[in-house]
Amino acid sequence: QVQLVESGGGLVQPGGSLRLSCAASGSIVNIYGMGWYRQVSGKQRELVALITRGGSTNYADSVKGRFTISTDNAKKTVTLQMNSLKPEDTARYYCNAEVQTVKSGGLYWGQGTQVTVSS
Question: What are the two backbone dihedrals, phi and then psi, of residue 81, each rounded to the nearest 5 degrees?
């Protein structure tokens, strides 16, 4: 069983910064990639940023230049540094990971952490 636990969400003023972290645990043999998605109530979940085990990254156009994703493969964590936050960044942010476990593998999700950007 694989668990992903996010932390670091909260309330921040426009122009401020937040750092989200996600830690993976369980019977993980290998992590192929990790990422962050976000979802606003009533809308589809959308990609924010992805990073592969090799370090290749992919960002949504709306966050390029403001957000930075990074991983610590040894610690099985992924971090999302969010700068210059805007009200439209308000959403619930979910961590995911594509992993190989002892028995199989697949895509796993965390429970999410709320980010609210408001004055």
Answer: -90, 120
Q: Report pLDDT digits (tens) over 9-25.
A: 999 999 999 999 999 99
Q: How far is it, in rounded angstroms, from Cα 56 to Cα 77?
A: 16
Alpha-carbon distance 97 to 81, whole Å? Answer: 18
Amino acid identity of residue 27, one-letter, is S
pLDDT in tens, 75-110: 899 999 999 999 999 999 999 999 999 888 899 999
CA distance 83 to 49: 14
Tell me the C-alpha distance between 109 and 119, whole Å.
30
Percent of the chain beyond pLDDT 90? 90
Taking the CA atoms of 31, 71, 77 and 64 in sequence, report the sign of the dihedral they define.
negative
Among 86, 92, 33, smallest CA distance to 63 is for: 86
